[in-house]
Fold each of these.
Amino acid sequence: MDTHKRASDRSTRAKMRSPGRPKVAHRAQQVLFWRLIEKGVSSEAAAVQVGASAPVGSRWFREAGGMPPSQYSSSAQSLSGRYLCFEEREEIALCRAQGLSVSAIARKLGRAASTVSRELRRNAATRSGSFEYRATTAQWHANRAARRPKATRLALNETLRQYVEDRLSGQVTGSDGVVVAGPEVRWTKRRSVRRQHRKWASAWSPEQIARRLPLDFPDDPLMRMSHEAIYQSLFIQGRGALRRELVACLRSGRALRVPSARRKGKGRPFVSDEIMISERPAEVADRAVPGHWEGDLILGLKSSAIGTLVERKTRFTLLLHLPPMPGHGVGPRQKNGPALAGHGAEAVRVAIAKSIQDLPEYLRKSLTWDQGAEMAQHEKLKSEAGIDVYFCDPKSPWQRGSNENTNGLLRQYFPKGTDLSVHGEDELEAVAHTLNSRPRKTLGWKTPAEALEDVLR
């Protein structure tokens, strides 16, 4: 009988899920960890700074969906003096181990004896069968008791949840109402484990859904939701409202949220305020003085590229030949190795200097480029070719309008989705000559070559 009872007890304990090791020992670490995340520090670096390992930091970030839990966020209010803190619980555990009485512990802490007595009774470690008091376990019990779980609006309102899900993951249909399944596009770029594979869906953004609710349900105040609440339901585990796989319907396909400070901190380290487009001379903007150029790359398959340079006043175009370097495509790609595709920083610098070296000095005044890594050696280019380099603001292609327009014209000869490395220098020169021989409306129907010839005269 006793054997049967012991076996039953073991079976019961096996079915009970262990709450695991109390995490209160990491509370101070996680508060500092999420403050560093909000400043744009990576999860691995933030974990190391707070005394944890890099894999632990990745796990904290992943489990929280990239969003700081409310108890760790900078906006969370600190506990008032009414409640015992972790340091006080550590002092209680030390005093208890020394055999001090409840009254003595209370006097030492400046607390009421009933507060200490209640703490020892409520938050003791009982899994060993005794009432031992440990600070970490006590704080863990206190945190669990302080939780006030509140069901989200999406979890409570079935109609609202179905509305959101239908517009996130609804099927794509034609004008005749026929469902078009579309192909399953797999995410194959770097760090693909951080994103979900894509599929065709209606894919409304959370902001579109939130703004559309008052129009579709003008008289129902319960059918209201902010786009931030939708994002939290998608990214934070345990919310229990929206299915986790719906993150694949977001346009970014991102499974984790990226802190805004980290997105802002993605600027190129070689771009300083002194060489931004706002510091460019005023004479460049009105196109009255020749010698100011705009540049960019057009990309093709197999990491192929062609460089383009356009003079702002005359629209004269130069094409840069950027062939693959020896060793490209041979064997596995070397991590952090040299750029062998042909459009690395060194290759672009050499190509630009070679193209403009025969121009007079007054036609080599400035070059405006986007913040691509191919211009990391701009200082060396300035010293070699004698041309000042300025960088556009991020995501502002209109600041290089002449170059963007020329790149569009070049796609007639170098279509997207083709290997651009098959074109030699003679072919690029022929295409450039063709563009420079076309009359342009903005030049009074002169050709760029004729406009440049007038400048040279």
Amino acid sequence: MAKTVSVALIGQGFMGRTHSNAWGQVPKFFKPPRMPVMHTVAGLPEEDPGAFAKQWGWQNASTDWKSLVKCEEIDLVDVVTPNYMHAPVAEAALAAGKSCSCEKPISSTLKGAREMAQAAKQAKVKTFVWYNYRRCPAVALAHQLVKQGRIGKVRHVRAVYLQDWAGESVPLVWRFDKKLAGSGSLGDLAAHIIDMTRFVTGAEITEVSGAITETFIKQRALPTGMAGGKIADSGGKASAAKMGKVTVDDAVLFLARFAGGAVASFEAARQATGNQNRNGFEINGTKGSLRFNFERMNELEFYDAAADRAVQGWAPIMVTHGGDHPYVDAWWPDAHIIGYEHGFTNMAYDILRVLAGQKPIVPIPDFQDAYQTQRVLEAVSLSAKNRCPIKLSEVK
């Protein structure tokens, strides 16, 4: 078995930075069974892939992703493009026999996601989707506690992902264009909490109802430059004279049912003032409950209903103890907290484990798994459009 994995990164921007950091950091903190080689980054000429490669440690730079994914030296193609390009790049990589990792949501459309999952099945190679919040130690611990039966049968799920960055001053970057993104807060944020609750509960969503979406800002100033390294960074200034139509949602809310009988509510918004990155859930079971908020990502709250009633209460667990909490032993001494970027590095480690034939620390989503989340996104869209419940069995 080869001792290295040569990685090609397709795309730059915000996610390009996070993935580049992960591939560079993973051999410094973990002992992966196969070592990553940061072979080549590909981007548009105006993005200056050469400068990006130099800053982030890639050995080569390219503006021709179609040739790059066929390169015999490449083992893994990592896709961080805007959503509409996920399917074309991933399918080309799979056709070339490459393993492929892809940012979320897996595609901008259900059709694209279905085709990606089918292509992966036919290619018989490993695929991965960067639902990185699974790799937060607190979320991974929640998954383990539910699997161990510590909270009993799950009855209620409440999940939110609230941000407030998308004010009127933000230009019409690709995230506000349906042709490029597929959807707004639905695919950008709700996809994360759908995947996260599926992962933690171990159950699938069977029905969506009561969905509503809203676009508060109908038009935005057109950007004058390329996307930069932040969520809403256009790489230039907004044009005061030229405006464009926003074609995605700013906020989405919906109800759902899980297999096994649990009921759920979901809410995602990019203009929830005062919420910087509130990504979290509360899961109530017959024996206890769990609560997580990414703004306090090193904590998981646990309510043990089996304890004496006199001492029952929400207990904050500082999920920073190596050996007891997933991934932590690779990082810092106990109670020396980790941050956003560490989830990506943990993900890179698990990808390398799987490529070496080992199991990940906790389950890692492949294209087929991510397609199930995409089916839920489609059900929400249909429910909001038609104002009716949608069973997942109707969404193929």
Amino acid sequence: MSHYINYDGGRKTFTIPKGWNVISSEDRPPVPGIKDPIQETRRALDHPIGSPKIEDLARPGMEVVLLFDDLQRPTPAYLTLPEILNRLNRAGIPDTRINGICAIGTHPIPTLPQLKEKVGEEVFTRLTDRLFIHDPHASDNVIIGKTHRGTLVEINRRVAFADLIIGVGECMPHPIAGYGGGCKIIMPGVCSYRSVADHHFTWMRHRNSRVNMLEGNHFFEDISDAGRLSRLAFKLDFIINEKREVIRAFAGDPWEGHREASQYAASLYLVPLPKLADITIASAAPLEIGVQATKALVMACFSTRSGGAIIWAAPQKQAGSIMPLIKEMASPESAEDFHRRLIVGDVPEHLRSFGISYIMQVVYFKEIAQKFDIVHVTEGLSAEQVKMMKFSYAPDIQDAIEQVHQKMAQADVAIFPSGGNIIPQIR
């Protein structure tokens, strides 16, 4: 029987050898976006979850901060921020008492044209001289406390001293935090570099720091603590498809709203499995560009037993962004040793300009190479570059299957035709 994966805008078919038992080959079809995202935004803001409306939270004389993510996220800030500004105006707060802050975390600083693209012409004009980009290295970031697990929370001074803090972001499955959105607009969004490093490097490898887990996930729970310490009052989170179209909006209390948004995202992307697979075949589709392509590999790890094999198919036609990662993968350092370096602040020089989340990928990929037999099907990387990652190279999917079959004649196999937008769930 033939199977397929989605690859570079088309399909690649392949056959499974005798002795391999397919336990799942479910393909989650793309979720269409809604026709009117502005109307969906208004619906969410008019019916907030666990919170009064923005108009009822605001009071004349307040200093308000609007937080929004950067261009690495598809959140349509240009559509939603005008609506929030208008509601604040109706509550007696003029634009002159509102600051907009791009919550970049430790991502690269966007250019002025990129900032204008994110917020749109109207907001860029209305908040002239009051649009800011968070600087995680700023000397005036303010320490506001520690989480109940002892993580330092040091945030942007404008956020620390604001009377009302409102965030806009995206809620999607997250490999470590369970789901994105919610209080991630605070941690890492507007936290200092040392605060983000303290949090991320401490909890990144805890067994409960994983996708589709919120309760008991220390990584997520510390983020929630940071949100409470910062007094984040209201959050608007979007569920967005791979075409950057809005599927649904959730607004209100940053914790209750995020919980409902996460449950909705789970209903779209969960793929049940009866057991851990010996072999997982995963396509990076529909997230095949740059570092996004690695998401499918990380998700495949959640469905594969330790010592098993993963066939990871990704075109890598725009592989420039992962080349520093490949360079570090080539070093003989183990995941454990590299992680210890990060904990004490010893970041390799060639990675210092990258965000903390990118640097973390080095640890994860070294660990993946130690834990699984990875065969990478790709066109954009050479066999030598794949070897630098401690992976095996295959020019096509059928060749990869033959390589793995030589080592495992009998196996339970999970196939993810679109591995970039699924959440494996072991029953």
Amino acid sequence: MNKVYVSSIRDRDQLESVFLVKDKIMAMAKNGKPYMTLKLMDKTGEIEGRVWDNVDELSAIFDRDDFIAIRCKASVYLGKMQLVISELARVPDDRVQLADFLPESDRPLAEMERELASLLASFTDPHLKALMDAFFGDPELMALYRIAPAAKGMHHVYLGGLLEHSLAVARLVDAIVPLYGGLNRDLLVAGALLHDVGKVREMTYQRSFDYTDEGKLLGHITIGVEMVQERIAAIPGFPAELAMLLKHMLLSHHGQYEYGSPKRPKTVEATILNYLDDLDSKINGIRTHIRKETENQSRWSSYHRLYDRYFYKESYCGADEYDEAAEAEAEGASSAPVPQPATSPEPPAPQAPQPRREEQKKGFHNNPFEKLQGKNLDLFNQ
């Protein structure tokens, strides 16, 4: 059974494929007959599935966060793609390639790790440098920090999202600092790299992204401040005021009480961190919303519920649409004389078909899930 990705499913497709069950809800129709609603996912997106027949029998086969192979028909209902499932079977974990089912950062992990190492080497404050070494020199923490998503649904919702987002905020810090005098650059970069560090314990991301019990009860802000305090306590002579200022940045980086901030920003550095964090989060959220709409030919995006608006797409240019080599070639061609053909030009040679977008995408290098090898799945005849 070949993998059919969510992004390639079209209306009236008849398909067989494997998906990860992100959610499973049992309900009762108006006629008193039970049915089951599933939220299915792979690395390209999510789609709703419905089971109308043999519901009790099929429900007993699998649970949330299991992999299932399905036979189904795709149809658009109320403007939304849906899979009507006729057959399903649970798939053992060792029969799938987990990297096919979890979205991942477009940036190669090795590239982001080099950028992080460069940032860590740039610290001049000895106390903050020691704190950064305590965090990012910890192999167990780094194993989580490098693959964790930055959120469950708002922004950077993919493996590597936390690292990608933290580095982006740090780059914004280095762009801002030269514009204003008197800023503590090391404190700001430390805040950029640590403001969401609690998410390594707030969320689960070995399967579908969700919250841990600790995450639901405490939240990443409280967890992150505890992690910072634990490591500061182990550094001799760490200044109490510096510790207070850094912890205040973590406590206030959401900006307002209604956004989950225990405190509002009350220092210049904390205010800057709040706005830069919000800026990068919103840019990523908007771009992700637009990129998902590959079939939408309108100049406007669909309605974004969280931002309460539509987005005009014509000025948008994604990173994967920017072809530096083509631009350089075009510039060179514009400056060179145009040769005049002596004879009629020959027709161009046929071009090899280009790989699909998901095949072009760079892999998430060192992804710990990639060690599992996918196998051919013919589960309905077993």
